[in-house]
Amino acid sequence: MNFELRNEAAQIQSRRWFLRNCGIGMAGLALNSLLSRDVHAARATDSLAPRSPHFAPKAKRVIYIFQAGAPSHLDLFDNKPELAKRNGELPPPSLLEGYRAAFINPNSALLGSKFEFSRHGQSGIEVSELLPHISKHVDDLCFIKSMQTDAVNHAPAQIMLSTGHSQFGRPSIGAWTLYGLGNESEDLPGYVVLTSAKGTSGGASNYGCGFLPTVYGGVPFRGKGDPVLYLSNPKGYDERTQRSSLDALKQLNQQTMDSIADPETASRIQAYETAYRLQSSAPELMDLGSESQATLDAYNIKDPKESNFARNCLIARRLVERDVRFVQLFHEAWDQHGSLDTALPKNCKDTDQPVAALLQDLKDRDMLKDTLVIWGGEFGRTPMAQGDNGRDHHNRAFTMLLAGGGVKGGHVHGATDDFGFNVTENPVHVHDLNATLLHLLGFDHERLTYRFQGRDFRLTDVHGHVVKDIIA
Length: 472
Known about the structure:
Blueprint: H1 2-21, H2 25-45, E1 61-66, H3 73-76, H4 81-85, E2 117-120, E3 125-128, E4 141-148, H5 154-163, H6 173-181, E5 191-197, E6 219-221, H7 239-260, H8 263-286, H9 293-298, H10 309-321, E7 326-332, H11 340-364, E8 371-376, E9 380-385, E10 391-394, E11 398-403, E12 411-413, E13 415-416, E14 423-425, E15 428-429, H12 430-440, E16 450-452, E17 455-457
Parallel strand pairs: 1-7, 1-8, 4-12, 4-15, 5-6, 5-7
Antiparallel strand pairs: 2-3, 4-11, 8-11, 9-10, 13-14, 16-17
Helix pairs in contact: 2-8, 7-8, 10-11
């Protein structure tokens, strides 16, 4: 007992000596605490201020066209004459060694594409007859035909492509972009999400902020009514009353912010102010009345008020024109386990012309050069048939398209075998793709980190290499 008391006294004396003699003292500690709090408060309050990346970027903004459900690379971009030749045969046993399909028996008959391919542009890149409009832009497109991912089902694979991890809770690439670059738009969120068809299996995790402060998450815009829920004031609540109420809320939140420097309090302050500005900016953005008939026709928009993929493509252009940093379109309609001969052509008809119009529109406005456009889904489809007329999930090989933003146009990176089953040249994992996207935005993916629960996290986790071959 006496030993314990002496030990405690010695510890107290040691602490007193440290505080008296080390040149800091209690006042110094208090000052350090206040300064630290002020720094954190300033960072939190200024969390959306525009910032410079690690090095000069090639892309200033991103339009990510997420074709959820997994488009068939074998019927759109990766022509396989040998697969068509061996249609109905069983796959070679060597092909299936160690392979496990998501749903089908791997030893199902091979299914050759029913659609014709032809070469386009000066680059002579082959594209399916189902995409006649996108085909006209092959010289602006970079085709990555050697994509690979770890997940084999939709939600995990979508979340992995978006966040670098197949489990919930990680920040999306749009959130990382906003965290790194801030927001240049005064009246609109820096990260906007538009959905059509079935949306996305991965849900809000595909555009969420994860463990980053809430202010960096994607903001979904609705196609009908208020673009954002509860944007309109209730009856009898005029602008003066609203401004007075918001000012009072801001004062209360600022007091909390000054006291504890909580990033979520800063997010709340910014959310109220953004919502206030959105009341005038969002309706104007979503109103296509100022667009010419020629523009509407180019995007194949029949009714400017109808919410669909074509309208979202035009709104995406309007958003990046207004300095929105990251725009993500989700269109889940590509899960062709059956009806490949009817559903796939319909999907292409719905999306082909709007995507081509978006590329041309950006090009005409001299914006494609520094706007990175991404087109693709979470994985590919099997060369083996599911039923009579479908394909199963396939994570070993698929194709994604990139345009603008510093990527090589008219370029094909990577290749697959004669069946489109395995990558044979220059594999590109999801982590590699994300590392490259950040590189185009001016970031070293290993240095763009956020400390959470005692560890520095990043989009690519502990993986990823920049695919230098696709960079112009």
